[in-house]
Design a protein that fits this description.
13 strands, 7-stranded mixed β-sheet, 2 domains, Aspartate Aminotransferase, domain 1, 12 helices, single chain, 4-stranded antiparallel β-sheet, Aspartate Aminotransferase, domain 2, alpha/beta
Length: about 425
């Protein structure tokens, strides 16, 4: 496509844009269980209105836009209040989970350097289930990643003992997930904390998925184990607002136990011809709308609103568990929040996924082991029976195909 010589009419452009979206995943209908967190039309309207109210403002300039600076402080304060942040804890908003994780690793690396440790090539020790954002960040900073297989007992939790054994003098970070993305399992953060204390290593909790879910699930009676700053060894956390915080994209938070630790994160530079520049994260320009929308949604929902929405998601996950078990699937581990993965003992998950996809569902799969994967939203409360019905048909189709193939093998053998 080349830029038109003469601009086109907006009505024509808008019509074309809408038409281009006809082939996209039908997330508004609840047929997507990844990428989008659908809390309903009311929250979507708040996201849009709050975002557009500050869409031209730039979080890079707190002196020019003190309103955004205060909203970001409020968001961080609310986050720390939910996640047991101690006195003096702080943090910043970022563009997403990868950004938050990158900044946490950068901070841990610079802290280790200032402390005279990690004089060789730094490394981090993470479970095999940890997000690939850790690998991306370490690739940028030339840090070695040591991925350790999860426990072999069917819990899909991090193998804390093996992770501890993988630490050495150049280890700058241990990582646990709350929960991990592939299986939706919360790692044993308290036990990881004991290892981190013993090894004198920074412990980061990746709560990008669960940071704004787990506290409310606990309030609803779900037996969520200690996973946040309640564990003394936890020095930093990543938690996404545009996931189960139901904020507009892209909004995440990176949080630190103290100002002393946080001080190693910002960039404070003056080595050029322009004015000195200090930025808290990797980004220069920071979209004001992402900050204002997060602030607005958190205030509109409040604790009661989040408890209601996360309660709906947990109830839907329980319905999924019951439904897929009736179809012969096995749930991986003990999911407590909105993520769930399940495998079939007879039929390959990817074959079943192909069938469910052909019926209009855009969900996900997990590779280790091959399984179907759902990241549920409040909207799925209304459509989950339809999903389970289509899943039953998909399993039957795969079984019939397998039976036909087996007969063909016998016929031509």
């Amino acid at each position: 496509m080349q830029m038109p010589i003469k601009g086109r009419d907006w009505a024509e452009i808008k019509s074309e844009m809408m038409a281009r979206g006809d082939g996209d995943a039908k997330w508004r209908d609840g047929k997507t269980a990844v990428y989008v967190f659908n809390a309903g039309e009311e929250i979507a309207a708040i996201q849009k209105q709050a975002y557009t109210a500050y869409m031209s403002e730039n979080g890079l300039g707190p002196l020019a836009f003190p309103s955004l600076a205060q909203m970001e402080k409020d968001v961080i304060s609310m986050a720390l209040g939910l996640l047991h942040g101690p006195e003096g804890a702080t943090g910043a908003m970022t563009s997403g989970g990868t950004d938050s994780i990158t900044m946490a690793i950068k901070t841990a690396r610079d802290y280790a350097r200032a402390d005279g440790r990690a004089t060789g090539r730094a490394n981090i020790v993470i479970p095999q289930s940890a997000h690939l954002a850790f690998d991306k960040a370490c690739h940028l900073m030339d840090i070695n990643v040591r991925r350790i297989a999860v426990r072999a007992d069917g819990t899909y939790e991090a193998d804390v003992e093996a992770m501890g054994e993988a630490c050495d003098a150049d280890t700058i970070m241990l990582v646990g997930s709350a929960p991990n993305f592939p299986h939706g399992i919360i790692d044993p953060i308290e036990v990881l904390g004991e290892v981190a204390m013993r090894k004198r290593v920074w412990l980061h909790v990746d709560a990008c998925v669960g940071g704004y879910f787990a506290p409310f699930a606990r309030m609803n009676g779900v037996p969520v184990p200690a996973f946040d700053f309640e564990v003394p060894a936890v020095l930093s956390m990543s938690a996404d607002l545009h996931k189960y915080g139901y904020a507009a994209k892209g909004a995440s938070t990176v949080l630190f136990r103290s100002e002393e630790l946080y001080a190693h994160m910002p960039f404070d530079l003056a080595c050029w011809a322009g004015a000195p520049m200090k930025t808290p994260t990797l980004a220069g320009t920071r979209p004001g709308g992402a900050i204002s929308a997060a602030w607005a949604v958190m205030n509109v929902l409040g604790v009661d609103g989040y408890k209601r929405l996360q309660g709906q998601v947990c109830e839907t996950r329980e319905r999924v568990e019951e439904g897929v078990k009736r179809l012969g699937f096995k749930i991986l581990g003990n999911p407590m929040l909105g993520l769930i993965a399940f495998a079939h003992p007879e039929h390959h998950a990817f074959a079943i996924y192909g069938e469910i996809y052909r019926r209009g569902w855009f969900t996900s799969v997990t590779k280790e082991p091959p399984s179907l994967h759902l990241m549920l939203s409040p909207k799925h409360t209304d459509v989950i029976d339809n999903y389970l019905g289509d899943l039953e048909v998909s399993v039957a189709t795969v079984a019939a195909q397998a039976g036909a193939a087996k007969k063909a093998d016998v016929r031509y053998s």
